[in-house]
Amino acid sequence: MTPKNTICLWYETDAEAAARFYAETFPDSSVGAVSRAPADFPSGKKGDVLTVDFVVAGIPCMGLNGGPMFRQSEAFSFQIMTEDQEETDRLWNAIVGNGGQESACGWCKDRWGVSWQITPRVLTEAMAAGGEEARRAFEAMMEMGKIDVAAIEAARRG
What we know:
This protein has helices spanning about 15-25, 85-95, 120-130, 130-140, 150-155, and strands spanning about 5-10, 30-35, 50-55, 60-65, 75-80, 100, 105-110, 115-120. It has about 160 residues and is of the alpha/beta class.
């Protein structure tokens, strides 16, 4: 059954490679239909991948190989909740180690330019607690690239 709402991500030419990477990296992720061009067209040829249906952490997506006209930006990101440092490290390292780049406060970018927030649950819980606990966790996070779970837990305790 086709979902009523699907996120469409624009790639230059690597939608299928991106979808396969996401499916290998994130739980509850998979690659579905791959649509190919039925004939030659101005920027490609018959058989080229046009779109790829995929799921990332339960969210239905479509990758569109649209050429170089548009680029990804930090205005869109996937936020992936992690349960512990091991999961945080695994996901962060998979993205950054596959040609991606680190950013600040738990954000990183994959090699296709898609932004990811690898967010340990302990951080969102600290922020939801409010008050001094949230302030301390927030200040600790502001000094980090990849989130350090132990440092957030220490900040929560004061």
